[in-house]
User: Fold this.
Amino acid sequence: MDIVFLVLYFVGMLAIGFYYSARQTTVEEYVTAGRGLGYWVATFSARTTGESGWLLLGLTGMGFAVGLSSFWVVVGEVVGVAISWIWIIPRFKQQVTEYKSLTMLDYFEDKLGDHRHYLRYIFTAILVVMVTAYIAAQITATGKAFHGFYGMNVHLAQVMGVGIILIYVISGGFHAVAISDFVQGILMFLGLVGVPLFALYHIGGITPLMDHLTANHPHMLNIWPEGGNAMIIGLAVLGLAGPGLGFLGSPQVYQRIIALKAESNLKRATVVAIFYTILTDGGAVLCGITGRYFFNSLADVETVFPDLVQHIFPALFVGLFVAIILSAIMSTVDSLLILASTTLIRDFYQKVINPTISEKHAVRLLRICTVVISIVALLVASMEIRAIYWFALFGWAGIACAFCPPLILTLFWKRTNKYGVMAGALGGVLTAILWKTFSADIIGFSLYEMIPGFVVSFILTILVSITKKDESRALESQ
Assistant:
């Protein structure tokens, strides 16, 4: 009987795709939903896209592993979302409307006068690599979810999940993605708020939980990460809070702002985004912590959410919670697929190689490209990358380090030019890659790669903009 919820969920996602399929006749409709999203849909879509399977499997697993110190991730996320929606997004929305930009790459090119498309070459290469890694992490999460609940073969589950996503993405385009993200966001909210509350009810409240942790897992009650001296602990806190930086301009999130129908709704959307983040991210950590009451240890801490659900809920509801986990995964995968195909076909092929391509043919290529990227990501996922939390954060960091500092500077510093943005984007993503690969061996401890990547990207964008003059087109007055 529990499979009924899952079937209804899949049918609903497919129905959304088919409903919007007739509208997909132009590139603008396919990649921005004709700039017609309401603020509830745009906000939920932006938030679910920024969270992914990392939230329901990765962050819950972290809560199970380390306890209260995981709340530093929540702090970073909330601060990042608040800064983004209060200060950056309003100015970004005003300028993309002014330039009539369909994508963030359009915005950079129009703002900086990059008539030779240098930025498109660089950003396309960065996005294709990082988005593929990010999608692969979400596909891995799909396999873990089905295996954890049903014992299904991991690779079969991955193919099935990607197949469902492909159908509604290529049929309904960005509009179907945004509406499906809205539905998925509601399910995620219900799951991440409802499960820890029900678990606490099952336990008997906060006091029995704290007593159990004090007696059996006292390290979980320490709000400060383990690490020794104050500097190491401070860097650990900074690393935990670091993922919040990705909300300051990542293109898969900001594409929703381009698609938002009315700027007048931004204040309401800001309130929704902040409270959604507080409740869902806090709920994810609390899921992991309450899981410690029921399980002393797990072979894989990232299965704590499905394990907890199966332990405290009747079997009838298992399908519903599989749908909730898939919502977190699919709401990110569909957005990344749209982003990658849009980058390759619209931002690169149509704008650089073949500007005279017909709208119908361009839409067809967007769909084909989406399928190809999915297959490549499936192959990467078949390598059985185990740590969803860190692999997803690597893709998130690479994209953010390339885009966020340059975007912020173009919005708030008039001297930013295309050479600075190119240097910042390349320097940021390369720093993230090198830091991820070598930092632990060289400096003896691990710091989330987004922190140094962000700093390097900011510095390079400023320094190169100052030293390398761009006479072709100055930034317009703010």
Notes: The chain has 18 helices and no strands. Confidence is low (pLDDT under 50) at residues 474-478. Residues 105 and 347 are 7 Å apart (CA to CA).
